[in-house]
Structure formats: structure tokens, C-alpha cells
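Notebook, p. 212. Picked up where the previous page left off. The plan for this session was modest: take the two constructs that came back from the sequencing core last week, fold each one, and keep the raw output in the notebook itself so nobody has to go hunting through shared drives later. Recording the first one now, exactly as returned: residue sequence, then the C-alpha cell string.
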Amino acid sequence: MTSTRSRRGRDAQAGPGRAVPGRDRGGGGGPGPGMAMFRSLVASAQQRQPPGGPAGGDSGLEAQYSCPICLEVYHRPVAIGSCGHTFCGECLQPCLQVPSPLCPLCRLPFDPKKVDKAAHVEKQLSSYKAPCRGCSKKVPQPP
């Protein structure tokens, strides 16, 4: 009975409407909290790629031009023709090795022959200076 009280105490401490880590509030056979977190991350990543982008400073620019796989500024960016999502060329390579590739972001099937160099992104990044990881200097992006 002690374990029941401690569990109830933890639930009560979390308060109404708050999730307790490791517990599914849905009750039943639905997807667990891990799937909800995954969907939240995907939605967040999709919102980070607006066509016009944020107008505020380097951090907004860096967020707009970050690969959703490695979370770094794009390196040799490529775009999937069917959905338009952009990734580093190297990051997308594992997806191209399977018979029926899916976009890592939206999971739509795509034709590997219709993955092209994202020239528009490279052009915009050519004038962008990224923060150096070792110091606070801004350095040009490599081609």
C-alpha cells in the first residue's frame, strides 16, 4: 500500500493537467507520451521553415537555415522535390539508400531522382557568417 500512496502523492504533486514523467494520461491502447513528443518535435521543425523567415538577427537566421536532422547550419543543402523540405546533402544520404525513401520530416514518399541542390539556400547562406564553436567570432560558411 505504501507504493500506491507514493504514486498518488506524485500524481497529486504534478497537479491537474500536468503529465507525470513515464506515465500515459490517455489511458488505454492509444499512443504513449513518446509519440506525442515526437509529433510535437515534427510540428516544431515544420514551423521553423517559413518561406520568408524571421526578420530578427542571426539566431533567427541560424534557426531558419538549420538542418532538421543534424540541427546545424546547412552544409551542401539539398531539397526534396515533392515536399520541398531541405536537409544537408550528407544528412539525407541514409534516406536515399532504401528502396522507397520517405522524407525524414514529413514522412511523404519521394523520388530520389528529384532531390536537387538547394541553390536558393546556398545563395542566401553564402553571405551568412556563423558563430565559431571555439570562440565568439563569426566566420563565413564553407562552400
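Okay, moving on. Second construct, recorded in the same format:
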Amino acid sequence: MEDLFSDLTLDELVYGVFDPKRDCSICEVIKREKDLVNTLEDIATASRDYRGCGACNNLQSGVQKYLDQCAQKDQPDVDWKTIKFHMVYPEHQGRSRYMLPVLEILQIAKLNQFDPQQVNSHQSPDSTQRLWFRRNVPTSLELSALVAQISSWTSMCKDSHPICQNEDSPRLPKRVLDIGADDIDGIRLSQPQNISAPYICLSYCWGIAAGTITTTQENVDDHLRHIPWNNLPILFQDAIRICRALKIRYLWIDALCIIQNSTADWEIESARMASIYSQSFLTIAASSCPNPKTGLFGDRWTNFESRVPRAPKPRFPIGTITTESDGYFVHVRPQLHLAHERFQDSASASEHKIDAPLLTRAWVLQERLLPSRIIHIHSEELVWECKSGLRCECGVLDELHLSKNRVPRTHSELWLKSSLADAELSQDLNKLSGVWTKLVAEFSALHITYDSDRLPALSGLAAQLDGPVLGKYFAGVWTQCIAPCLLWEIVNIPRKFPKRPLYQPNAPSWSWASVPLSKSQIISYKSVDFFRDINSEFKVINLEGRTLGNNPYGWVQDASLEVQGLCVRTEIHHKDYRGIHLWIPSHPSFVSFTMMRSDRSTRKTGFLLLYVGLRYCLVLSKLPGPGRQYRREGFTELPNNHLNSWVDKMELKKIVIV
């Protein structure tokens, strides 16, 4: 659609189309400040006091119409603190500053100068002097609209993103669903032999597994012949409808394409996740569905904080209300914010258990990051995620911020999928190791039901990064960047540890995977950001152990790491709420660290500091027996003002960490 405003500056647009009163305080804010945040009462006052400002009168009418509709539908009592114009510049995008309930105004213009249908068209200005409007988002998601949006975004991605390109017809996975054309009874499990064709993957929450159809050793032959349509949960049926509408014949769903009660098949196929997801034509993420019994289509909603403390957040339909008055029209809707917050802030996953339960799951991280393209069906709107950028239906997440020739990067610099693709392309050790530590940190913040799944759930990403640059993979650590990978810590360690094992027996103590995590704990490599110089005396002499099972990226046994480095024996100076404080007797300073495990012994001696580089040392404890075996307990930072005096006390040793 033609850009009706392509030649208008901000002043011309506001005064020529919006036609506000020049002395109206509300209109002045719109013109000068780009965003209007105000109360409905303020706007009503403006429409009375400034000689009947038509723009403010219509704005008040549109907002009131939405509130009246909410009241008619018995919507919960929400205190609408502000209303906000979303007539903003590209650089003004980002997470909303207004966390209280907000109405957003999509458009306001003269009827004879602006096509109301233009609200469905996103304006992409090349100049900061032009306004950027939000798109309309339908209240209900339907198959035809979803397929049209997928087709549009896919075409854009294929035409504009070289980094997102993959084979048009890759070799099919070991098993796929052959869904046929349109016969609901023509669905079967297929084991293609060297067949190449496009296929789609489904990413979803299992929920409570009972009652969900799966492929087992007992029914695999039946599934190879035929899978009855009515045996499939609605989520699987909806995914099949989407595939057929897109004219894609093959669909991969883990519950049906992996033999669920075969440990060997599960281990082999979980190790192939990298190729399965990365080579897919598209991955459909059922982000809003808590289980397969929930469908993808239907009404969409957002929520805000309730006026009642600790009460459930009330839901509101996202549909747009349109009103016309005095030659103007205005589109009003509640502010869309849930999807934007989740995709712009990885740390917010736990806050989105209701609107995006899928995105709280650890298993799903690799399902998000491996595909070239993924469509998220979120409770509010559709979100497109590819290796080059983010897009959403309303336009907030659109990739203006990714263009080097337009606006400086904002979210993409911290966005893991883009960083992963860039690191893979560059094959730079520093970039790859940095991406890996970010992967581990984000992964650890997500929920996993079984602690034994932690390494298998990351094996697809490990396989994707496997290569000579990072070296050998071992229990979540890469040999070519082992020094910084040793400097992990647990954030939010409780004062009283839960009654769980001291460490995972199938991971060495120097691996982040060795420590069971409680709900609020995450792995952090924040100190690695300052790590620039490995000490010349620190060397890896030998790393050995054996992988368990058929997944080369899974758990290990009898693992040991032999290193050489500068060491000094220390003992406990004192303990307090900040942690354990170590020192060398008669030394003027001490160092502090937090015990990673629950066996906080009362012993005062037997600790060893291993100098890794800059000011960082591993804290090790001597294991019983005559050998040189130690266990990692944490890491610490030497005081900068006494760094040399600490290093002078150290001597070169060879030790084994298990």
C-alpha cells in the first residue's frame, strides 16, 4: 500500500492530518514529545477547555468506548492508569517504561485524508522525521491469517537474509509424519530412506504426558501403517492443518517420531536434534499452549496487574476498537507487551508461565535457536524469529534495529539467536566461547523436570557448535576454551541447601552440569566478561573420561582434568553471610568465595587456589587419599591491591581435578 505520509515531516503530519488545537496541552505533547502518556480525565479536560479540541474529544470517545465494552463483558476491575499514543520514532522502540495498565492508540487522523485500512499496514520510515505506526492485531487467530503471515515473513527472509538460507529440500530425518494432502485419515509415520524434501518441526509443551499419543516399541508398526486422526490431540491436528495449508507434506513431532520407551533410540535421536531442527523449512512453536490438548487458534489476550494485591492478573481481549467523530477516527486497544518483554529479556522467562509456557522450558532453548526460521504462536500475537531478526504482528519487534545502515543495534547485540549465527559464521574462538557461556547461563534459568536431562537437552546446540575451533566437548565444557569455562558460579545460592545430591555423579566437579540447581538458581559466567589474559603457566595436560550411552554430548563417567598452574594452599579465615573467606596465615588480606555445594564442612584447611589468569583463581579442596586429586568448590578474585603478593606465594604444581 502506498505510503500516504512519505513526504510529510512531523509538524506537517500532526497539524495537517491530526489538526490539533495549537494551544491544547495534550496536542502539544503529541507534537513535541512523540509519545503521549496521560489520564482519560486530562484528555476530557483538554477537549472542554481548548475551544472544543476535536482531536482530544475523539480520543476520549474512543478510549471510553473500549472501557465500556470491557464493562459490558464483565472484565475484571483494572485501574487504567494511563493511555499512551504509539506514534513514535524508530529509535523509541523497546520495552515499555509503563508497567501499569496502558491503552495504546494505534491511529488518529482525518477520515478524508487517511484510509482506515492503513492501520493494517506497517510504515517503515527512512527518516526520523516520519512517524512509525503500530499494526492492527486481530482479536482471534485464524488459519488463513496465520498462513498468510507465515508466507509473507518466509518470503521476506528468503529474499533478504543470506544467513538464514538452508537447503530447499534437505534429507528427511529418520522418521517423519507423512500427512498427505487433505485426507484426515491419510496420516502415517514414515521412515524415509535417503529422501530429500522440505519438512516442518513442532515445538510444544508435553505437559502431563498421560493421555498424549506417542510412538513406542509396541505400536511403531501400527503407526507406520496408519495413525487415526481422532487419536491426535488438537495441537497436533492444528500443526497438520498448517503444514497442509503451506503445502508441506512432512511434519516432525518428537512424541511420534522418536520411540519413547527405547533408551537407545531416544539417545540417538536427541543427539540429532541439531540437524533435525536446523534443516527444517520452518519450526512452529506452540508458545502459548501448556500441553497438546490446547489448540493454536482462537481468541487472543493480554493481561495487566490487578488492583487487588497478589490477585491473578486479569485478561483482556486485544482487539482494536474504532470510533469516528467530528471527521476523525481513532483506533484503541490495550497495550501489547507480554510477547515483547519475553523476547527482549531472556531473564524474564519465569514471569511468562501463563502467556508463554513453552518458553520457560529448558528443552525448548535449542528448539528456538537451531532452526533458521521459527513462528511463535503467542497468546497476544505472532512472533517471527530467524537468524537475522525478530518481527511481530504489531510491529514493535520488527528489525529496524538490526539494520546497520539505519538505527544502531539495541536488542540484537544481546540476542542469543543472532549472536549464535554470527559466531558460527565467523568461526572466531572468542565469539564462540562467549556464545557458549551465554547459552549455558540462559539454559540454566529455564525449567527442566529431570536434572538428568540437562546435558541431553543441550546436546543439539553442542552438536551445532562442534568443530576444531572449540575443540573437544566434554560434559558441557569445550577444551579449547576450558580456562574461562571453568569460571562459572551459581547465582542465588540458598543459605540452606535442599536435600539433594552434593553433585551429579556423571559430571566432573569442574563442569557447571555437576551441581543440581533449585528453582531460583542459575549458572553465571559474568566474571568471564572481564577475562582477557590466561596466565602463561596455566596449561591443560590431559582430559579423560568416557561418555555414557549413545549420545556423545551427554553425561560422562570417571572424568578427570589434569592441569599445571600456580597454586597456593589456604585455610579458612572466617565465615559470614557473604561466604567463606580464605587466607594465608600472616598475609595482610583474604579472598572470599561462596561454597557451591551443601557439604559446607567445618574443616579450616585443605583448600588450594589455582591461578587461572588476571585476578581469578579456582578454589579447590583436597580429596582424601595420597594422590593429587582435588574437587572444584568455586572460584574467587584476588584483591587487586595485593595481587602480586598473592602470586609471589604461589608455586608451580600439577594437579588432577575430578
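Notes on construct two before I forget. The chain has 17 helices and 29 strands.
Flagging for discussion at group meeting.
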